[in-house]
């Protein structure tokens, strides 16, 4: 994987170069010398977003069916500690 850095001015002048570079790794776009944006191939973007999906995200999706969940009640009994 190759990381390419381009200034926003370079990006504006040669978008094709940035798109080609994104096929080999992320392209960091700087604004006044500081990293401001990252350009990724769509494949890399999909891979990254799939990894971050949690069960909570999946359940929050509008197409998720309602789930009934009733966990069993737990009774906790305490006892004196043995210090022998």
UniProtKB/TrEMBL annotation:
<protein>
    <recommendedName>
        <fullName>Antitoxin</fullName>
    </recommendedName>
</protein>
<comment type="similarity">
    <text>Belongs to the phD/YefM antitoxin family.</text>
</comment>
<dbReference type="Pfam" id="PF02604">
    <property type="entry name" value="PhdYeFM_antitox"/>
</dbReference>
<comment type="function">
    <text>Antitoxin component of a type II toxin-antitoxin (TA) system.</text>
</comment>
<dbReference type="InterPro" id="IPR006442">
    <property type="entry name" value="Antitoxin_Phd/YefM"/>
</dbReference>
<dbReference type="InterPro" id="IPR036165">
    <property type="entry name" value="YefM-like_sf"/>
</dbReference>
């Amino acid at each position: 994987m190759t990381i390419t850095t381009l200034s926003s001015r370079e990006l504006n002048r040669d978008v094709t170069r940035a798109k080609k570079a994104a096929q080999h790794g992320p392209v960091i776009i700087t604004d006044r010398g500081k990293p401001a944006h990252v350009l990724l191939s769509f494949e890399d973007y999909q891979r990254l977003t799939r990894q971050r999906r949690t069960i909570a995200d999946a359940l929050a999706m509008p197409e998720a069916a309602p789930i009934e969940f009733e966990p069993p009640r737990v009774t906790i009994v305490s006892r004196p500690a043995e210090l022998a």
